[in-house]
Design brief:
Layout: E1 2-7, E2 10-17, E3 21-26, E4 45-50, H1 69-82, E5 88-93, H2 95-106, E6 111-117, H3 126-146, H4 148-155, H5 166-176, H6 181-191, E7 210-215, H7 219-231, E8 235-240, H8 247-250, H9 252-263
Parallel strand pairs: 3-4, 3-5, 5-6, 6-7, 7-8
Antiparallel strand pairs: 1-2, 2-4
Helix pairs in contact: 1-2, 3-4, 3-6
């Protein structure tokens, strides 16, 4: 069912289904809770999937600093508190994976197991972050000036999505076109890869079990996850053949099997 909650003065919308130990699922940039096929998990878990800040039906504040990953993480903790969830399993994809990792680093007592799909700990150097922040700002301005439809046409043309079928692209396009351009633009400014602090140095501190999932066709994120795997104390790395960045959509049965086996 769909619910709403006022979290740190912003109205969030989220789905909650199933019964059992809680599993919180965080979608990627331009996504929403509709990206997840939650039915596979609801027999064993209480699945909570929010529309993240500036996405879907959740509000889109006008100030970019409200979208900073620190503030977004506080919102997810506030959501858990409102639902009386002291400890959760946490799954994040891409941008949602970066947020999930930030939560695990800063609120380790709240995370039982962590699953990261096509995620990263951010850019290692300030120079890399500054360069990426400039690119994110240019894209944010493009969203505001050209509108959501033009941005979606550009975004879905990126090589990152070449491994998706036309049916997948159409499904994602319908979700993306519903977004508020202010929300997406400010999400890039506040929680884009350029704005995110590097979390590489904190990986050795994570004591909870971590499942890393990447698609073999997504060479960039496969390499990043291989590097993470060597640093994390308790990690398992799964590289899925014939899959790109969106493993959960491209290979849903394999993805669900991996997640369920790991959580058991």
């Amino acid at each position: 069912m769909r619910y709403s909650a006022q979290l740190n003065m912003v109205r969030y919308v989220f789905t909650s289904q199933g019964r059992g130990f809680p599993l919180v699922m965080l979608h990627g940039f331009t996504g929403s809770e509709l990206n997840w096929q939650m039915a596979a998990y609801t027999d064993q878990f209480e699945v909570i999937a929010p529309d993240l800040l500036g996405h879907g039906e959740t509000e889109s504040p006008i100030h970019a600093n409200r979208y900073h990953i620190k503030a977004a993480a506080r919102d997810i903790i506030a959501l858990c508190d409102s639902l009386r969830l002291e400890k959760i399993n946490l799954l994040g994809y891409s941008m949602g994976g970066r947020l999930a990792l930030y939560l695990a680093v800063n609120y380790p007592e709240r995370v039982h197991k962590l699953i990261l799909e096509s995620a990263s700990p951010g850019l290692k150097t300030q120079a890399e972050r500054d360069e990426r922040r400039q690119r994110d700002e240019a894209l944010a301005e493009r969203i505001e000036s050209e509108g959501i439809e033009a941005f979606v046409r550009y975004w879905e043309s990126l090589p990152l999505w070449d491994s998706q079928t036309e049916a997948m692209k159409a499904q994602l396009r319908a979700i993306r076109l519903r977004h508020n351009p202010i929300g997406l633009a400010n999400s890039l400014r506040g929680m884009g890869t350029g704005a995110q602090p590097s979390m590489w140095e904190f990986l050795p501190q994570l004591k909870m079990p971590v499942l890393l999932i990447a698609g073999a066709l997504d060479e960039k994120f496969t390499t990043i996850n291989q590097q993470m795997h060597t640093i994390l104390p308790q990690s398992r790395l799964e590289v899925i053949p014939d899959a790109g960045h969106t493993v959960h959509l491209e290979k849903p049965n394999q993805f669900e099997k991996l997640v369920l086996e790991f959580l058991r």
